[in-house]
Write a structure and sequence with these properties.
434 Repressor (Amino-terminal Domain), mainly alpha, 101 residues
């Protein structure tokens, strides 16, 4: 088994890359829904979170793999917890191990 370098991103296989896109899009849809429910503009949320409006917009469009720190910042901007932002994410299908038990 090859050694994994901790600070160097590893390339994703095709299935993982598709899953990443699906998760980013689901997060963005949920974020936009919560923002609209609170009647907050994208610009207002960005200012409250200390982020650029273009960045928040790209998160809502599912174009960014957002960091945990920025999830927390956006949650604070919406007066929510980070876990509330993550609730709408789909569950990951259970993957069976390739090794026998």
């Amino acid at each position: 088994m090859p050694r994994v370098v901790v600070n160097k991103p590893q390339p994703l296989d095709d299935a993982s890359a598709e899953e990443l896109i699906r998760i980013q899009q689901a997060f963005g849809v949920g974020l936009r829904k919560l923002r609209h429910e609170k009647l907050i503009t994208l610009e207002q949320l960005a200012e409250r979170a200390g982020l650029h409006p273009n960045y928040v917009g790209s998160v809502e469009r599912g174009e960014r793999n957002i960091s945990l720190f920025n999830i927390w910042r956006i949650a604070v901007g919406l007066d929510l917890t980070a876990s509330q932002l993550l609730e709408a994410l789909p569950r990951r299908p259970h993957r069976r191990s390739k090794t026998p038990h």
